[in-house]
Amino acid sequence: MPSRARASPRKDAAQATEEAERITGSRGALVIAKTWQDIANCAELAGREDFLDGNPVDWREAAGKCDAPAARRVLRELLWYLQEDGYAVTNGLTLEQIAIAPQALEIEETLDALLDATTPHLVKDRIGRFHLKTPRGGGRVSATQYFTAPTASWLERWKGGLWLGYDTDAKPGRRVADGQLEFEVGVWLLRKQVKVLDERKSFKTQLKPHKLTFDIEDDGGAVWASAPAKRFITADAAETLDAQAKRIAAWALPKLEALLSLRPGRYPG
Question: pTM for the full model?
């Protein structure tokens, strides 16, 4: 994406002031500007207000239970979507979080390096009749590793992409929201393509034998698999990062092969 010239802070402030004056100066117009953060703050307060026992911050955990009121469950899911997409955060920092912040940053750096070390093991091995390639500019340490769709694969025809990453299993409606760290590998597709696949029963029946999950998001969807990080990490303090990367690659390779062997049918072009 081409970089845009950044306006000066002074110009930004002047434009914001001018816009504010224009809005407040509109006689007879009821204009109220709200950001997603404002909406999230209201949702957070609404969720907490009837939480009378214990720490009100824990209302989300209570809202995730099967017997929780529907209104509270909706608020919880709304806040998760806003936070997941980067629009808003409502819970402030705690003293415990501040205390572990240095270690948390170090863990994130290690996770990124672990994925970066896993990629070469995936690229050098043949997957079925395909070879994986990293996109140009790939190979740098990143929270997610992307791969170019192999030539002549259904994924190339469907203009999809492959990824390897990590996440915490704390998403409403996904699995048990226990915050467990997981590694993921999967295929990302555009919204139009996902809608077509959602109507093809023959495609969905191919997923179960490989333990693949099919998800639809607002802007697209994914076919993916995950495994808890504890599966790849031993109690040996002297273990190297590369040894762990090899175990992750050994798990990811058959999943990638399963993803590339899927037969989704005709491309909706």
Answer: 0.69
